[in-house]
# Entry
Amino acid sequence: MVFKYTVIEAGGAKKEGTIDAQSKDLAIAALQRLNLVIVSVKEEDTQPFLQKNFSFFSSGVALKDVVILSRQISTLFEAQVSAVKTFRLLGSESKNLVLQKSITQVADDIQTGIPISTAMNKHPNIFSPFYVNMVHAGEESGKLNQTFAYLADYLDRSYGLTIKTRNALIYPAFVIITFIAVMVMMLTLVIPKLSSILIESGQAIPFYTKLVIGISDFLIDYGIFILVFLVLGVLYLIRLNSKEGGRVYFDSLQISLPFVGGLYQKLYLSRIADNMDTMLSSGISMLHAIEITSSVVGNKVYEKILNETQEAIKGGNAFSDAFSKYPAEIPSIMIQMIKVGEETGELGYILKMLAKFYRREVETAVDTVVELIEPAMIIALGVGVGLLITSVLIPIYDIAGGI
# Structure
C-alpha cells in the first residue's frame, strides 16, 4: 500500500511525499527511524477510477458472515496454518467487500507483530468486545483454535435463535401490512364505485353502510395528509430511537409488550447466560465477563442491570443477590439456579443449562406465536374484507329486489 505523508525535518522544514509499506503502522515506523517528526500519514488512493470497487450496498457485515469466518479460522488453525496466512487467505476469498478489506488489514497488522485480538479490536463493526476478549483469552491460554471453535458455536447458536425470532415476527407484520393495504384499496377504489350506485338509487342507506362510505370518503379526501403524518411519525420514532433516552424507552417497551414481550425477555436471558458461560469457560474473570456481556446484550434495560450488578459484586455482593434486585426482569428460577451454581462451584455449568433452557423456551414461544398468529391474521383479513363488501352489497341487493 502507498501512504502519503507530511513530516518536519531536522531543520524545521515541512516535507511531503509517499512511502510504500504493508500497513500504516509500518509506514510510521519507517519514517520515525529517519528521525522525522510526523504530521500526518494517510493511505493514498492509487486505484484507477474505473477499477474501483464501489460498495454502496455493502456498508456492513452480517452476523452470518462472522459465523462462517470464525468456523474457517478455527479449521485453518487446527490445520496449523499460520495466523498471517489464514487471514490473508480468508480476506482474498471473502465476497463481502467490507469484510475483505477488514480481514486484509487484520493480516497486515498481525504481520507487524500486533496480537490478533488487538488487530481485531480496530474493527468494532465486525468484531464485538465479546469476540475480541474471547480471542485475547485464547491467546493467553494458547488455545486459539479451540477459542475460535467456541466462538463459531456460540455465534451459530445466537444467529439461529435471533433469525428464528425475527422471522417469526416478520410474518405477522407482513400479514398485518397486507391486511391494511387490502382494506385501503377496498375503501378507496372499490367502495366509492359501489356507494355511488346506492346514493343514485335514492333509497334509505343503513347506518353501517353510511359508516363505511364515510370512512371511504375520508380516506379519499385526506389520505395524503394521513400518509404524510405517518411518514413524519416514523421519522420521529427513528430519531428518538437514536437517542439514549429513546433507546431505553423502546427497549423497556419491547420486553413489556403483550405476547412478544416474554419472547424477547427469554431471548436476552438466553444471551446473557450463554455469553457468561462462554467467557467464564475461557478463563475470563466474572467482573470482566459481566462488563462485556452488558455491552453486547442488545437491550438497554438489561445493560443497565448488568452494569449495576457489576458494581454490586465489586461491593462484595454475590451474583445471585445482585440479580435478585430485579424480579421483573430476572425470573426467580434463574436467580435460584445461579445461587446453586455459586454454592456448588459449578456456576459455568449452571449458566450453560440456563442458556439451553431459555433457548428452548424461545424456540417454543416462537413456534406458538406463529401457530396462533397465522390463522388469526387470515381470519381477520377475511372478516374485514367480508364486512366491507357485505355492508355495500346487501343494500344493492335490496335495490335490485325492489326493481
Remarks:
- The first strand starts at residue 2 and ends at 8.
- Strands lie at 2-8, 14-20, 37-43.
- The radius of gyration is 30 Å.
- Residues 199 and 205 are 8 Å apart (CA to CA).
